[in-house]
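Let us practice reading a record.
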Amino acid sequence: MDMPVKNLQGEVVSTAQLDERVWDIQPNVAVLHQAVLAQQANARRGTADTKTRGEIRGSTKKHHRQKGTGMARQGAVSAPHWRGGGVVFGPHPKDWSQALPKRMRRLAMLSALSAKVDDEAVLLVDDWSMSEGKTREMISTLATLEVSGRALLVLLESDAKVTRAGANIPKFRAVTPNTLNLIDVLTADRLVFTSAAVEAVTEKLLRPIRPKKTASRVGTGRGESPVAVAEGGV
């Protein structure tokens, strides 16, 4: 599929041929949903923690005698129903990460990019270079290219001037093909790719997936040590 390529002045200078296997597939909504949930889960630190009654620091002395006070029997002030007591079913450190096969992660990214192309939210530029690295220069360039809302700029390599110029723009972010992630693509209103970045993303998403090495037990008798055998090659 063909897509026009503009310069930073907003003029069409050439046409890029995009690989339909990356930029024009039928989006798989189910895989997209599962990949987004996995990325959000992997971003959770899982460090929230509350103290149980056994971890509360303080006296464990019985609060008052068992009978004769007219009050309910109490064992210790660290009980959950006391002020400052322990928490019964509070959170504790936990690993929230979810494993997702590489084929599914890749299909999710292909679906997201193709959906953005269908929504006409993808813009190609021949190059993105800044002379001063000033915020006003970045704002002027985005206005010239008619890029508004939440914008995601994908460069082949990180540029200190571009990063500095876009640091004060709340809804702007510059990334490279290696740091491009699914949620950033889905939440962006406009995706701006340089010609070199498009080629790098396409090459990365079409790269053959190496099968994982699986270990099998090889032995002829009982008590022999297992030998790991790699299957599938590299």
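A brief commentary: The first helix runs from residue 20 to 23.
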